[in-house]
Amino acid sequence: MDIKTYIGSRKQSVDAFLQSYFSSAFRPKKLYESVTYSLSAGGKRIRPVLCIAAYEACGGSADDVVPYASALELIHTYSLIHDDLPAMDDDDLRRGKPTNHVVFGDGIAILAGDALLTEAFVLLSDARFRAAGISDGQILRAIAEISFAAGAEGMVGGQAQDLLSEDSDPDADTLSFIHAHKTAALIRASIVTGGILAGADADGLDSLREYGKNIGIAFQVVDDILDITGETAVIGKPAGSDEKKKKMTYPKLYGLEQSKRQAEQLVADAVATLGGFDQKADPLREIARYVASRTS
Amino acid sequence: MDIKTYIGSRKQSVDAFLQSYFSSAFRPKKLYESVTYSLSAGGKRIRPVLCIAAYEACGGSADDVVPYASALELIHTYSLIHDDLPAMDDDDLRRGKPTNHVVFGDGIAILAGDALLTEAFVLLSDARFRAAGISDGQILRAIAEISFAAGAEGMVGGQAQDLLSEDSDPDADTLSFIHAHKTAALIRASIVTGGILAGADADGLDSLREYGKNIGIAFQVVDDILDITGETAVIGKPAGSDEKKKKMTYPKLYGLEQSKRQAEQLVADAVATLGGFDQKADPLREIARYVASRTS
Questions:
Q1: CB contacts < 8 Å between A and B, how many?
Q2: Would you call B156 and A88 a contact, using CB atoms and an 8 Å cutoff?
Q3: Which residues of A touch B140 (CB under 8 A)?
Q4: Residue A193 is part of which domain span?
Q5: Which of A14, A99, A90 has the alpha carbon at shortest distance from A55?
Q6: pTM of the model as a whole
Q7: CATH code for position A109
Q8: What ipTM, to 2 d.p.?
Q9: How many structural domains comprise chain A?
């Protein structure tokens, strides 16, 4: 199996779902434009793809989980819009395009983020998208998993710590907290959600949680590395922006070489946790390796 | 029954729940302080109280629904923090205290709002707070009701239209859209949620929805009126700020006297929709009258 083909096909399902979901414009039009601008800005859809891959690893059929997987992309996109605001990371460029607030203004950008975050829960709780065999209880557990990972004790907490740590000397505890919460929490929840919705047992969910934690941190370490070694045209944002903003990063604390070794070790650990899964988990294994080798 | 005693007692239950819920600080401390600063800023808790009153009107016992009712206050509080930001309404004073961003900065204020919105869904989906007799399906329908009312087709859409309509000439259609979505949608959802969780039938839910729509709009019309007739010390924000910000309001479009009559009519309509309910709905009836006569 070619992992790029796998990722491309699952990404396409998510893209198609998101496009049809937002096809009927809501009012005011400018809010709709702001929401769809960021949603269609060329994201990799890595969280939905991981959710689908985990669902398939547990025996589910991809199509059944696409709406729920897409909800994760709404949350991720909201977090990017808010993170890019002048009051936060103050980024003008994202995925090679002007950021949301540059195009629509800060007020509408804040509201577009709020709308996307809220819409994720509209989608998750909408009975129209329910596949047979997924129970109310499974959906509720997925909502609990996702909301916890996205909230104050997850992504938002990590972003707040990141914001408050700019200009500070890097320390291992703070950096580990930021990465585990800002990035890894939602990635982990994406994977665990796939398992919950597919009816995985406690052992299966534990393995997926551990896999997700390792992949999530690896993903952020590679992001930190690419900010130094990548080219603006390829990574879609100005290279070296972490350094300019005095962000606390892995390479800053551990150096580039050790950071690369850490990312590889995290990926190896992630793959090792999937020992109890059969070949249906091969996409999860391959995505782990892909995360470490990606260049954008 | 004295309605002030009723409201005071239900408000106290909500306050106690919120205080215990956020008693264990999350990291970073500043995010926790920002969240609890706005939550404990002396809100009237009108949405949770209405949710509880609707639950009781349908035969439920108040204590069982307090956690879910409190989730509505988290959403309301997030919306106030974001609305007050310089990029939105740019308000420095709220409930007589400096607004969140004045104390904590814009970045942390945005994140505190994000955290509160997300935490509402953590709370709603948390099995720890479930009373016996409330099913997974009822909780899911409540989440669907609340998220829809809070999102792009509800509160966020109304706020976006409000933001985009500043400096515009008032027109009845736009004003009606803003009020129905910015304020009335979440108030209506608070009441319907009480009915859903108490197991109300379709007719009961229809009545509660109609009651909620009328009360929600009346609440905003009275807000508009108080902005003109109220005193800064009583309403907790600078009187006349709508006029200064060239907001589209009821008094601006219809005049003060006609706005007062409209509020009274909406309240009368709201009470009339409760004809099918017995005396357990008396608090809902009294709260409707209280909304029209309030001075802050």
A1: 162
A2: no
A3: 125, 127, 136, 139-140
A4: 3-293
A5: A14
A6: 0.96
A7: 1.10.600.10
A8: 0.96
A9: 1
